[in-house]
Design a protein that fits this description.
Number of strands: 11
Pfam family, one: PseudoU_synth_2
Structural class: alpha+beta
CATH superfamily of the largest domain: Alpha-L RNA-binding motif
CATH class of the largest domain: Alpha Beta
CATH topology of the largest domain: Alpha-Beta Plaits
Family: Belongs to the pseudouridine synthase RsuA family.
CATH architecture of the largest domain: 2-Layer Sandwich
Protein name: Pseudouridine synthase
InterPro entries: PsdUridine_s_RsuA/RluB/E/F_cat, PsdUridine_synth_cat_dom_sf, PsdUridine_synth_RsuA/RluA, PsdUridine_synth_RsuA/RluB/E/F, PsdUridine_synth_RsuA/RluB_CS, RsuA_PseudoU_synthase, TruA/RsuA/RluB/E/F_N
GO molecular function: catalytic activity, acting on RNA; pseudouridine synthase activity; RNA binding
Number of helices: 4
Shape: globular
Distance between the termini: 25 Å
């Protein structure tokens, strides 16, 4: 069986699945990109998040990417309300930040990478746009995680007092999403390029 690898820029409000379980749901099938029937998402992004999503039929790659023991880095561009300082970001870097899982249990996050961006990243406008409050400034952060709990980054930034407004995954391993990509775009990766996701 030929191995196929695709990177898409998942749009905001689109589910990371092909099956439409409710008439109002927007799914990957709406992209109409003609993926082979044996190709499925590797991991996921929640509906409120955008950006890099891998689709493949390579089960070994899926296992290597998703196994917690392999701890591959994923990087996100995150717009938050307010202006976090170094001491706030250090709470993300230190590890142990407590968030609540869907099971209602508390979870202590692994150490993250976190930096403040001095300039907003070059991203296409979101549809619909983020709602801003004129009297509250916003800040862009770059956050790296080696894990992927449910809505983890949103819960982490909220836990340190800076709610997430926009969240976009732009890098897995060494593979970084090109700036020219727009919501709904797709890139067909070679097997060699797909391996950079693991590094």
């Amino acid at each position: 069986m030929a191995k196929s690898y695709y990177i898409i820029y998942k749009p905001y409000r689109m589910l990371s699945q092909f099956t439409q379980e409710h008439p109002d749901h927007i799914t990957l099938a709406h992209l109409e990109l003609g993926f082979p029937k044996d190709v499925y998402p590797v991991g996921r992004l929640d509906a409120d998040s955008e950006g890099l999503l891998l689709l493949s039929n390579d089960n070994l790659l899926k296992t290597r990417l998703l196994a917690p023991k392999n701890a591959h880095w994923r990087y996100y561009l995150v717009q938050v309300e307010g202006e976090p300082q170094e001491e706030d970001l250090e709470k993300l870097r230190a590890g142990g930040l407590s968030i609540k899982l869907p099971s209602k249990k508390r979870y202590a996050c692994l150490p993250a990478k976190a930096e403040r961006l001095e300039q907003p990243p070059a991203l296409p406008e979101r549809d619909p746009p983020v709602r801003f409050r004129a009297n509250i400034p916003t800040t862009w952060l770059r956050i790296g995680l080696r894990e992927g709990k449910n809505r983890q980054i949103r819960k982490m930034t909220a836990a340190i007092g800076f709610p997430t407004l926009r969240l976009l995954r732009h890098q897995i391993g060494q593979w970084k999403m090109p700036e020219y990509m727009q919501a709904g775009d797709c890139i067909h990766l070679t097997a060699e390029e797909a391996q950079t996701l693991l590094k």
